[in-house]
Amino acid sequence: MSTLAEPRPTSSLAAPEVYRLTVDEYERLADPAVLEDDRVELIDGYLVRKLPKKPPHAWTVEAADDRLHPILPPGWFICQEEPERIPRFDEPEPDLSVIRGNRDRYRSRHPAPRDISVLVEVADTTLDRDRGVKKMAYARGRIPVY
After folding, report:
1. What does each of the 146 residues of the chain score in pLDDT, given as a tens digit?
2. Separation between Cα atoms, residue 92 and residue 112, nearest integer Å
3. Closest to 120 in 3D by CA, of 81, 75, 85
4. CA triple 43-63-126, angle to 5 deg
5. Three-state SS string across the chain, please?
């Protein structure tokens, strides 16, 4: 005899009773006096804890960065683990982002989907999240390559 398990929702991180933050609300909370734990990112309107990076993860991110730099076209640069603003409910911090322009262009704002050509997530413990809710966030932002 077998039983069927309840299907797990893949489009949301929490129950409908939980308050969802917009990106604007999240950025207002980013003040250190308000949000004491900066090891979170906003995914689908929810604060999601970022896990510590293990050595294989750190090595892989650095190796990918090393390989992307030589093939980067002029007018693009790479960010590591920096926020990407995908309105309305997402501000993930992918491991690597290929961004249009130069860093000075983003002195007063985070890159938006129109500024991003490639996002890279390296997963050793977060594969389900990276292929689930984060992939959906990048798809909502119409990121060309993930």
Report:
1. 444 444 444 555 556 677 888 999 988 887 666 666 678 899 999 888 888 889 999 999 999 999 999 999 999 999 999 999 998 999 999 999 999 999 999 999 999 999 999 999 999 888 999 999 999 999 999 998 99
2. 11
3. 81
4. 30
5. CCCCCCCCCCCCCCCCCCCCCCHHHHHHHCCCCCCCCCCEEEECCEEEECCCCCHHHHHHHHHHHHHHHHHCCCCEEEEECCCCCECCCEECCCCEEEEECCHHHHCCCCCCHHHEEEEECCCCCCHHHHHCHHHHHHHHCCCCEC
